[in-house]
From TrEMBL:
Name assigned to this protein: DUF1772 domain-containing protein
Bilayer-crossing regions: 12-32, 52-72, 79-100, 134-153
Pfam family, one: Anthrone_oxy
Organism: Micromonospora sonneratiae
Keyword presence, DNA damage: no
Lineage summary: Bacteria, Bacillati, Actinomycetota, Actinomycetes, Micromonosporales
Coiled coil: none
Keywords, comma-separated and alphabetical: Membrane, Transmembrane, Transmembrane helix
InterPro entries assigned to the protein according to its UniProt record, in alphabetical order: Anthrone_oxy
Keyword 4Fe-4S: no
Domain of life: Bacteria
Length: 175
């Protein structure tokens, strides 16, 4: 029963983590956006901030809760499975802390800019944000890879197939 619960919890957590990592990765692929002039880039940045502030906390916090539960449920599945679960959880937690302490302050500043007249240093802040976003993307992508490894190495143990010889009877397969 706990094995089935672990599979459901870890699979759901992996799905949410994949959505988070995929979103960060896809955003990184849109590097041409960072070449837009200020009056075009700032409204894009502000709209993105609005969407992410609304969508990401429930997604990431639910994911984090499921990963913590995955760790609890996988404690007796061996050190490799447990360690991979803990590593993925810590990487997601580090991503959250990094986002809140490094990227979010920049986002809050950008949200105050007038769209038609960004400040003179807007491009420097944008470039810093993109560098920090790259670090965040690496962290969350690593977390996704680690939880996928945990799923791959955690295979249910199957009963050994053997033969039992009972005197006076033909050998029987035991499943």
């Amino acid at each position: 029963m706990l094995g089935i619960l672990l599979q459901i919890v870890r699979t759901t957590g992996t799905l949410l983590l994949g959505l988070f990592a995929g979103g960060m990765f896809c955003l990184s692929l849109a590097s041409s956006v960072s070449e837009l002039p200020g009056p075009a880039y700032v409204p894009y940045w502000q709209a993105l901030n609005t969407d992410y502030v609304r969508a990401m906390p429930p997604l990431v916090l639910t994911c984090l809760a499921l990963l913590v539960l995955t760790c609890v449920l996988s404690y007796r599945r061996g050190w490799l499975v447990f360690g991979l679960g803990v590593s993925a959880t810590l990487l997601v937690a580090a991503t959250v802390v990094f986002t809140l302490t490094q990227l979010e302050p920049i986002n809050q500043v950008a949200d105050t800019w007038p769209v038609d007249q960004p400040p003179g240093d807007w491009a420097e802040l944008r470039d810093r944000w993109w560098r920090l976003h790259t670090v965040r993307t690496v962290l969350v992508t690593a977390a996704f890879a680690v939880i996928l490894m945990a799923q791959a190495v955690d295979r249910p143990r199957r009963a050994a197939v053997g033969r039992v010889d009972v005197p006076g009877r033909p050998a029987q397969a035991v499943v």
